[in-house]
Amino acid sequence: MTFRKKRMALLASIAILVLVAVLDVWITKDALFEKFGRQFINEAKTEAYWQAKRGAEATAERQLDIDSQGIREVLLAGERSHMTVKRAPGRTIQLRYTVTANAAESDAAERKRDAVLIEKDIREGRLSLAATAEGRPVDPDSVSIDYELLLPDALKLRIESKSGSIRIQGVVADMDAASENGSLEIVDVAGAVSVRTSYGSLYMANIKGSVSLENLSSEAIAEGIQGAFGFESRSGRNDIAGVTGTVSGSAEKGSVRLNEIAGPVEMHGRAAKLQLSEIRNQIRVMSELGDLKLVLPEAVGYAVDAKVRSGRIRTHLPFPVEPRPDEGGGSQLKGVVGTGTWKVDVEAHSADIQIHTQ
User: Contact, 317 vs 272, CB < 8 A?
Assistant: First the structure.
């Protein structure tokens, strides 16, 4: 068989296969459309089923009063809850909470609501507050609990939230706050603050005390910190401003922006974007695989020592960028800005450094 005849036979075979496929779709089109439509019908039925299960709602507001004598620490945890902590007017710990239960029938919703209790456990000066329903953990799919805690001064607070929100305002206490898949807000507090946030958002302002931050894939804003600020960030965005004490930490991926820092700065970044401005103290920064930008107030004065390997130094400062004398190669810049009061030691590997004045 010649090449031409072979090609004609192949094309004819392809044409027959295409024709068979078209006929198959045409014959079975009703079944296909029925199957495709059934998916949406089933989804609608499923949604209607769950809506019917939540058809009735029962709500109750309750309050728990606890004498704080002998208590040094308070622990409160919630899931899909709105949690608020405020300063108590006296020495009594008050927990005000709202329970909302959903069910297909009103009687069932009321039974779910009435089964919820806040159990208190005091051991070695630690008060734990936990919600249970007939001795078991509360099901967040059918029962929600919102909390308002009034905390007396000088009691340590431990608070945890998952897929909910926390707002802490005006308290005088050391605290450990953790939020996962939610929002956390801490404002106008006095005390040492330790925060862990993951896959959510954090806002802190007007903190009279030191701050320790662990940030995993969250957006964190902190301003007005009267104390030291330490942080560890992975894939998070961090905007930190108005710190009177030392700022130190590390960041992997994500970004860190520091502005108006009165204390010394020391940090390490890896694959993170770093930006520092209005730092009125010593600066020591190491950056790998992530660009570093410095904006130095000329009126303050700095002695700058910048080094780069596998990257560039970009600046309008009147100092030469020269090859580094060591075996690793790269480039360096040294010079004095203004009075040279503070030492700036920055180094980058596989990244660029930008240095500007204002």
Answer: no
Residue 328 clears pLDDT 80, i.e. is over it:
no
**Among candidates 272, 301, 281, which has minimal Cα distance to 228?**
281
Q: Of all residues in the chain, what percent are helix, strand and coil, respectively (each to 5)?
A: 15, 55, 25
The pLDDT > 70 percentage for the chain reads 84
pLDDT band at residue 38 under the 50/70/90 scheme: very low
Q: Hey, is 68 helix, strand or coil? A: coil
How far is CA 59 from its chain centroid? Answer: 31
* Inter-CA distances, 188 with 87, 151, 167, 224, 331, Å: 11, 14, 11, 9, 46
The number of beta carbons lying within 10 Å of the beta carbon of residue 177 is 23
Q: What is the pLDDT of residues 161-176, one digit of tens each?
A: 999 999 999 999 999 9
Question: Helix count (H) and strand count (E) of the chain?
Answer: 2, 30
Query: Under a CB-based contact definition with an 8 Å cutoff, are residues 179 and 192 in contact?
Result: no
**Distance of alpha carbon 138 from alpha carbon 270, whole angstroms:** 42
Quote the CA–CA distance of 51 and 103 in Å, as a whole number.
Answer: 9
CA distance 218 to 181: 9
Would you say the pTM of this structure is higher than 0.85? no
Look at residue 69 and give its three-state secondary structure.
coil
DSSP 172: B
What CA–CA distance (Å, rounded) separates 75 from 121?
10
Rounded to whole angstroms, the Cα distance separating 264 from 280 reads 8
Distance CA(285)–CA(341), nearest Å, equals 18
Average pLDDT over the chain reads 88
Specify the amino acid at residue 70.
Answer: G
